[in-house]
Specification:
By secondary structure, this protein is α+β, with helices and mostly antiparallel strands. The chain has a single domain (about 1-250), classed as Deoxyribonuclease I, Chain A (4-Layer Sandwich), CATH 3.60.10. About 20% of the residues lie in helices and about 25% in strands. The protein contains five helices and twelve strands. It has helices at about 10-15, 20-25, 120-135, 160, 170-180, and strands at about 1-5, 30-35, 50-55, 65-70, 75-80, 95, 100-105, 140-145, 185, 215-220, 230-235, 245-250. The strands form two sheets. The chain has a six-stranded mixed sheet with strand order 3-4-2-1-12-11, with no helix packed on it. Strands 5-6-7-8-10-9 form a six-stranded mixed sheet, covered by helices on one side. Helix 3 (about 120-135) packs parallel to helix 5 (about 170-180).
């Protein structure tokens, strides 16, 4: 089973840049998209033929944030948000229950310049972690999406220049470490321990060409799924967004969906 996560930085814009063709070529079973910046009613046709769609568009601000599941695998249920009015409304969380695990699609809040939204970000992180713990009581969890944080120095090209700033503050990095300590593994790091592997490059000229990037898009899996994780890899050749897709391949067992 192949899962894919991708911050498309505007679904309609990404579709104009060839996202549909790219997604069809990747041929994933479950696709988690973030920062879709639109509502389902704004599209004339399904995003991908043959996939069921589950949307969580931002309600507090049109054309902002938002998450979307595309799946051709049967879903038991899908729920939106975290159930906390002070943290919801930006369409940042979608949870899909499958037969033998949950998949949680997230677009984490940016702490912003000067860390002016750090308190909101950390409160959101805490609520998300509680949500993951609750889900984990019944079955394993796959968390995926744009987590808006580089975990370690090797996860961005210019660590010293960005230390303490949004996406690489001690508080955000500690929060990510706390998430892993709940019983999750950074799936990409199960296969690639080295640096130079990024998922986000700013639109500045030469940034992507010179691989001056950040690794802020993840699959974090319940530790119990490690034995079933066949691979986790980036697809930097896909250029419809300032982020690239990340793929996760999970092997089936006797209870697999």
């Amino acid at each position: 089973m192949k899962l894919l996560t991708w911050n498309v930085n505007g679904l309609r814009s990404a579709m104009r840049r060839g996202a549909v063709e790219s997604l069809n070529k990747i041929d994933a079973d479950v696709i988690a998209l973030q920062e879709i910046k639109c509502e389902q009613t704004q599209l004339r046709e399904p995003v991908l033929q043959g996939y069921e769609e589950h949307w969580n568009s931002a309600s507090v601000k049109k054309g902002y944030s938002g998450t979307l599941f595309l799946t051709r695998v049967p879903v038991i249920s899908v729920s939106a948000d975290l159930g906390l009015p002070d943290l919801d409304g930006e369409g940042r969380v979608l949870t899909a229950e499958f037969n033998d695990f949950y998949v949680v699609n997230v677009y984490a809040p940016n702490a912003q310049a000067g860390l002016k939204r750090l308190d909101f970000r950390l409160a959101w992180d805490n609520a998300l972690q509680q949500h993951l713990q609750t889900l984990s009581e019944s079955k394993p969890v796959i968390l995926c999406g744009d987590l808006n944080v580089a975990h370690q120095d090797i996860d961005l090209a210019n660590a010293n220049r960005n230390r303490g700033k949004s996406g690489f503050s001690n508080e955000e990095r500690d929060s990510f470490e706390q998430l892993l300590n709940l019983g999750f593994s950074d799936a990409f790091r199960l296969f690639e321990p080295g640096g130079g592997h990024y998922t986000f490059w700013r639109f500045n000229k030469g940034t992507r060409e010179n691989n001056i990037g950040w690794r802020i898009d993840y699959f974090c899996i319940s530790d119990s799924l490690q034995d079933r994780t066949a691979d986790c890899y980036h697809l930097p050749e896909i250029t419809g967004s300032d982020h690239c897709p990340v793929a996760l391949e999970i092997t089936n067992d006797e209870t697999a969906i």
